[in-house]
Amino acid sequence: MKFQKGTRRRAKEYEKDLVQYWKDNKIFEKSVESRPADNAYVFYDGPPFITGVPHHGTLLSSIVKDAVPRYWTMKGKRVERVWGWDCHGLPAEVFTEKKLGITDKRDIGTKISLEEYIKTCRDNMVQTGNLWNDTIARIGRWVDMDKAYSTMDKEYMESIWWAFKTLYEKGKIYEGEKVLMYCTRDATPLSKAEVTMDAGAYQDVTDPSVFVKFKLAGSDSFLLAWTTTPWTLPSNTAVAVNREFTYAEVEVGGQKLILAEDLVAKVLTDEKHQPLEYTVLRTLRGEELVGQSYEPLFDSPAGGRGENAHKVWHADYVSLESGTGLVHLSPAYGEEDFALAKEHNVPVVSNIDENGFYTSGDWKGEQVWDINKTIAKQLLERGVVFKIEYIRHSYPHCHRCGTKLMYRAHPSWFMDIDGQREQMLEQNSEGINWFPEHVKHGRFEKNMAAAPDWNISRDRFWATAMPVWKGTDAEGNTHVKVIGSYAELKELSGVELEDYHRPWIDDVTFTIDGVEYRRIEKVLDGWFESGSMPFAQFHYPFENVEKFEANFPGDFIAEYIGQVRAWFYYLHAINVGLFGKNAFKNVIVTGTLAGNDGRKMSKSYGNYTDPNELMDLYSADSLRFLLLQSPLLNGEDFSLIDKDVGDVARKLSMIWNMYDFFTLYAEVDGWEFNGDISDPSSELTNPLDVWVVSRVHQLTATVDEHMQRYDIPNATKPMLEFIEDASNWFVRRSRKRFWKSDNDGDKRDAYRTLHYVLVQLSQVMAPFT
Ligand SMILES: [Zn+2]
After folding, report:
1. What region does 710 belong to: left with phi over 0, alpha with psi -120 to 50, or beta?
2. If phi over 0 gives left and psi between -120 and 50 gives alpha, with beta otherwise, what is residue 79?
3. Which has fewest Cβ within 10 Å: 77, 269, 582, 736?
4. Which domains are seen in the chain, by residue range?
């Protein structure tokens, strides 16, 4: 093989051509097929939400998901890479609602038919998916997007049913009522993990902090309780104190109030925070208050009365940190309140509909967030409230639509995490290699150790329908039938559907022993679907049983740090639940990519350049390399600055400078490559040759060592150092050897060495650039 000078090409030109060449010649497919099926390296692609276009964050994951499989392919492994789409759930629905101009869940099924809504959801998902192919190809990622699995596929959804039924039969799924974070705009509960996945869900808001008076029965004294949620006062059914505390009965402004002794001076101030005059009448133990009754603030709606309503209870969580040492309880709208109510059989009053409107009482028809401050003021005017202050505090908001979340008791379906917690912890400790390592016993383990049972049901439309049918017999007993396949449903109902989404699935009913069964309206949490991808992508266990079993657990997954509490966690929970095993063996957790000003990348801040523009300006390789050797791959955050991409591009171009030098003289001297790429070390005599060849071997060994541990920053770091050494020392010092006129052994060695080094370097860098 002869060489020609001046054959260097600009990255901008050759990258796009190379992508086309790969495509035309099916190079990716060949790289997979040419390796034996029994030597597989299994990569699981976490499905991105299909909504929106690829941004730098998704490209970062894609770059990592390309580099690692390429490395293992070069080690001889067969690495199948199939893309996935997460098409269901609230993100998809909010996206569709925006397109349709829907702002209220109640419009679905009224203003627009559910059928039309679902069709629109599906169409949107298909259209958006097409936007991705070019950008993913442009960054040089090898992945099969044509055979992409999608969570809305009929087969995928059937595997979800199978998983649901299997877990249900193992006793790991149950129906219950718990207080959950709830979005009134989207009218569905959310799981804490999805809300806290990204920073920004907790926002500082100002809320009225209300000191409310409950009149003790048979007394002229008032219990002074404190709350920052006046909207929950109409559903008050209890007050909690701490029996260990000392309380004081004080006279202030002609009224008698009871509150914790230690908080008297702090609480008894006027609007200007000036102390009020008061007299302590007596002190008493909290214990003495427990069991006493008080008069309800309102004519409570039905269900708010009864033996245990409107009494004082002890609760350990009542503290002296803030407030009055007495806490107002609204069991339907507070987690601790609900637990106490269940324990003591205190009535639970629900007076707010699924969209956040009062269904009864003084504020019937009003929206809780709109009326919250007004309630406080009106109660102050009525003399029920002692005083109002305003506090700034951090409060959760819906991660999808930004609405303030409420906590509310909601009948839902749960996956029992508590029952398999030990096994999940053990499988993580024993079976998963994390990079960076601290996540393993840090964020991942801590999250798992504290995770509540997982609320897997959603009161929405566009997702896999929960395969649960219920019927009531003549005696009024409820029967539950969980279905695990389309065939099973057909056997019972005689119905086979083209599409198993709502609303069509809702019409399927069947009768067993004279009892008619109808499906409950709920759908599954999208994380239940994406967490099922290891088996659902293969339509397991209906198809590909051997393939799945040979490919589980997966060797590698990668996502950004927000997924530690989300996809990584759910993947682990479902698969430990089903198979008793961790779903993945190695995981890379990246940090979050920030804009050039350190803030979150945002169009409105204008703090980043579009990835396609950036790649056209500098090259996809330099963007890839910059990100791969950045702190992002250590799980830390990193600001993307265009100039840094340019700097990397310049450093990488030193390879081309060496190539130019090589081809220039190789052409002059007619040096030919004879096909021998074996290690020349033993035949080399010039110390420069010996040195640079040993350096490139050292580089290969270092990269290898770090890649085995998934340490990409340390694998990539020595590459630029080597390029500098090779260019500034070897080439510079060897120049004269190429210039001299005789074609002696030293010159031949110089050619052979430089050629060998360039080939080795290209190979070692191939997964990354
Ligand atoms: Zn919302």
Report:
1. left
2. beta
3. 736
4. 11-169+527-639 (3.40.50.620), 202-396 (3.90.740.10), 467-521 (no CATH), 642-765 (1.10.730.10)
C-beta of residue 168 within 8 angstroms of C-beta of residue 482: yes
Alpha carbons within 13 angstroms on the beta-carbon side of residue 427 total 22
**Are 524 and 487 a contacting pair, CB within 8 Å?**
no
Q: Which pair of tokens denotes residue 671?
A: 């040096």
C-alpha span between 22 and 435 (Å, rounded): 31
Neighbouring C-beta atoms of residue 688, cutoff 10 Å: 18
What is the C-alpha separation between 548 and 44, in angstroms, rounded? 12
Residue 670 Cα to ligand 1 middle (Å) = 70
Locate the DSSP E strands across 702-766: none
| Sign of torsion over alpha carbons 226, 307, 348, 305 | negative
Give distance in angstroms: CA of 90 to centre of ligand 1: 8
Active site residues: 47, 86, 527, 563, 567, 600, 603
Reported as a single tens digit per residue, the pLDDT across 241-266 is 999 999 999 999 899 999 999 999 99
Ligand 1 centroid to residue 202 C-alpha, Å = 13
> DSSP E strands: which ranges in 426-547?
433-435, 454-455, 457-458, 468-472, 478-482, 510-512, 515-519, 523-524
Contact present, 665 and 738 (Cβ < 8 Å): yes
Helix axis angle, 56-74 to 620-628, nearest 10°: 90
Please report the DSSP string for 600-633 in residue order: BP-TTTT-S--HHHHHHHH-HHHHHHHHHTSGGG
Ligand 1 geometric centre to CA of 192 (Å): 13
Q: Is residue 13's pLDDT more than 90?
A: no
- Please write the tens of the pLDDT for every residue from 389-413: 999 999 999 988 889 999 999 889 9
Q: Rounded to the nearest 5°, which phi and psi values hold at 203?
A: -125, 150
> How many Cβ atoms sit within 10 Å of the Cβ of residue 52?
13
Q: What average pLDDT is seen over the chain?
A: 93
Separation of alpha carbons 643 and 55, rounded Å = 19
